[in-house]
Specification:
Strand order of the largest sheet: 1-2
Strand content: 15-25%
Helix content: 10-25%
Low-confidence stretches: none
CATH topology: Pemi-like Protein 1, Chain: D
Number of strands: 4
CATH architecture: Ribbon
CATH class: Mainly Beta
Number of domains: 1
Number of helices: 2
Distance between the termini: 55 Å
Length: 81
């Protein structure tokens, strides 16, 4: 795929194809890994982190916080229906 470099400030920039952005779930502010080898440059999207509920819960210092009176509160929407 041929790309044209454009001037932006003191740098040269090129666009990233929409297919690559969509395929890797990227957006403005996303970070990618660039690898340079001689005249070659590769762009790699880092893998998205995978979280497990048990691991996230283990990071909580005292488990889930409890709200006083939660169980006695009246319904305000469609909680029961």
């Amino acid at each position: 795929m041929l790309q044209t470099l454009r001037k932006a400030g003191g740098s040269l920039v090129m666009t990233v194809p929409k297919a690559f952005i969509d395929q890797n779930g990227l957006g403005e502010g996303s970070q990618v890994e660039l690898q340079l080898l001689g005249k070659k440059m590769t762009v790699e999207a880092p893998p998205r982190p995978r979280y497990k509920l048990a691991d996230l819960m283990a990071e909580m210092p005292q488990g889930l916080p409890r709200v006083e009176g939660w169980d006695e509160m009246h319904s305000v929407g469609l909680e029961n229906g």
